[in-house]
Amino acid sequence: MILLAAGIVNRILGFIPRIALPRIIGAEGVGIYQLGYPFFLVLVTIITGGIPLAVAKLISEAETENKPQNSEFVLRVSLMLTVGLGILFMALSVWLAPWVTSHILTDSRVYYTFISMSPMLVIVAVSSVYRGYFQGKQNMIPSAASSIIETVARIGCTLWFAYLLLPKGIAYAAAGAMLGVTAGEFFGLLALLWQFRKERPKLAKTEKGSRHQASSPGLFSRLMGINIPVTAGKLVGSFSYLFESIITAQSLAIAGIATSVATAQYGALQGMIIPVLLLPGALTSSLAVSLVPSLSEAAARKDRLTIHKRLNQTIRLALVTGAPFSVIMYVLAEPLCRLLYNSTDIAGMLRMLAPFALFVYVQAPLQATLQALDRPGRALFNTLVSASIKLFLIWYLSSQPEYGIYGAVIAIIINSIVVTILHGFSISRLLAYRFKLFDMVKLLCAMLIMAALTTYAFRHFPFAGFGWIQLFASALVGAAAFLVTVFAVKLVSPRDVRRMPVIGKWFGSDEPGKPAA
Question: In sequence order, what are the residues at sequence separation of 6 or more whose Cβ sits closer than 8 angstroms to the Cβ of residue 322?
């Protein structure tokens, strides 16, 4: 819930630059910014990769076994590894920037954005280790606080730097936006270091009183044993994103679309539509992060019942919270895009993607489950298969004039379906877990009822034509109908609400005479 609160705040705040930046530098400027970003993700994945997960998992085990010296060893070695790689790849990215932007990417104006992002590699390397450290201790407050500080700083710096550099041209304005992201990451790192410094005296006292010694060779091999396959799995996703940007741009060129138009279309898809689609992912990302130490502890105790219980809770939460957003994005795609970006030309992409967003929302917890149960290789295989299918479809469809950018949209949809089904099948075989298909039917019924009432409210409410009032009022009517339906069909029960932190106490307790769990 702590990570969810921070995630929701971050997603809402993060939409400020998402809305304002296209109005400052246009869709073409957003496209230049987005074309450089996949390279950054590949480099960050190589540097950090599975380090946060490995650190969280090993620290969680060290805390369970009361071996604080092991925690200290894992933290120290992880920092040395990531900082060294961060400095190396920062130097390489600056050195190779002219060649990459002129030979691999289709738009040489990405050069300045590429240079602007290079210092971020070292900053993200250090931040990832400390985030994993605090998550391993199941203390989500430092990660949540630093992410909010990072987002606030990024908003101000991104818009300010882009505005200041706009007179020099779109390429410089996009580079200014990337510099703002770097500044935000730096402030987020400072927040993590401050939290760690506050906790340091207590840690030193605990370690001094402990007689346990770190099992260095065994811990290092376990650290790398978790890190390498998880990094490989994430690299598949990062390289897929990189190749996706390159192949999409090349395919649109083959289809006869001008470079500037192709850059603008790619920027609209990746910089404007996909962020809207991923907004509800705040919950599933939080669930995925907190699921790893929880399932790791249950697996260490060989407690399969708890694993099934946590997995069932996670999937149900992801579906129930993501479904209303999926409906709203489908039914109200045009007014939503008009409100956010002052354009309805891109609404078709959002409407196509919205019904399949639920696969994306469930995907993160399923992948986290495989990693927590020491099956990163299976997650890697599933991701590789789906990424290969996606890249082939982008190349095949987007190069045809009748599809264009919508070929990439179709490929993204099929990719999300395939990888989610493969993850689910792997978990089912591993744990003898059975997904509750009847719950899916209930959810579909609730979504259909919500879609019908939202459409009716949008078309027939007395304040039709009042823009955002009409949009929010009709979405609220639909959400209320969805909430009533999920309670009526028992997808969510009063007991589920009572177990939630903070708000649960307002709904009584599970047992007479006891406070709410």
Answer: 280, 281, 283, 284, 357, 358, 361, 362
pLDDT higher than threshold 80 for residue 28: no
The dihedral region occupied by 148, where left means phi > 0, alpha psi between -120 and 50, and beta the remainder, is: alpha
- Joined together, the tokens standing for residue 314 give 């996670």
Within 399-493, residue ranges assigned H as helices are: 405-431, 437-460, 468-488
* Residue reference for tokens 């920027």: 267
Q: Can you read off the two tokens belonging to residue 495?
A: 């007991």
Q: Where are the alpha helices (DSSP H) in 332-404?
A: 333-341, 347-353, 357-372, 376-398
Report CA-CA distances (Å) from 449 to 316, 351, 469: 19, 18, 22
CB 270, CB 245: distance < 8 Å: yes
**Whole-number mean pLDDT of the chain?**
79
Q: Which two tokens stand for residue 254?
A: 């083959």
Q: Reply yes or no on whether the pLDDT at 430 is more than 50.
A: yes
Q: Which residues contact 461 (CB under 8 A, 6 or more apart)?
A: 470, 473, 474
Q: Two tokens at 149? A: 């500080």
Q: Convert the pLDDT of each residue in 364-395 to its tens digit.
A: 778 877 877 777 678 878 888 888 899 899 89
Q: Are 356 and 280 in contact (CB under 8 A)?
A: no
Whose CA is closest to 158, among 121, 205, 127, 117? Answer: 117
Query: What tokens appear for 231 in the block?
Result: 């990094």
- Distances from the Cα of 396 to the Cαs of 241, 250, 350, in angstroms? 17, 11, 21
Q: pLDDT-based confidence at 429, cuts 50/70/90?
A: confident
Quote the strand ranges of 16-172, DSSP E. none
